[in-house]
Amino acid sequence: MNSTPALHYTTPGLDEATAQRVVALLQSRLDACTDLHLTLKHVHWNVVGPHFIAVHEMLDPQVDAVRGFADDLAERIATLGGSPQGTPGALVAARTWDDYAIGRASTQEHLGALDLVYQGVITTYREGIAELDDLDLVTQDMFIAQTEQLELFHWFVRAHLEDKGGRLSTEGARSETDAARAAG
Questions:
Q1: Domains in the chain with CATH codes
Q2: Can you tell me whether residue 117 is helix, strand or coil?
Q3: pTM of the entire structure?
C-alpha cells in the first residue's frame, strides 16, 4: 500500500508520525514474512532428489517460525493503532520483489534460490533495525529477535551450499534462477 492510513490511536510515548513510520516498517516485514513462509512451504512441496527428506523436514520448522513472526508483526501493528494488511492482493500490490521463480527442482537448486531469498529478507530487516534505533526500541527488539532466527535459518540453507573451504556455490549469483543453476 502506498498511502499510510491514519492510526486509530497509538501507544503512549509515541507521537502519531513516529507510530505511522513504525507501522509502515512493520507492514513491510509482515509482507516479507507472509511471502517467505509461503515460499518456504512451496519449496517444501517441490524439492526432489537424494537429499529430499532432509530438506523437506528442515523447512517445516522454518515455515512455522516465520508464520509466527508474521502474526507477531501484525499484532504489533494493531498495538500501535494501525490495521495490518494481510490479504494476498495487498501483499502482491505492496511487494517490491518478484515472485519465487523455481518450481519442481532438486534440493540444491531450491537451496541456492533460498540463499538469495534469505539474503534479501535479512538485509531489509537489518535496514529496519537501523532506522528503528531512533523511532521505537520495542519494535526494534522484535526485529532483532526475528533477524537472529532468520540468520540461523539462512545458515542452515547455506551449510548445504558451502564447500569445505567455506566457498558458497551461489557466490555472485544475482537472481534466484542464477543461484539455483549455480547450486545445482
A1: 16-183 (1.20.1260.10)
A2: helix
A3: 0.94
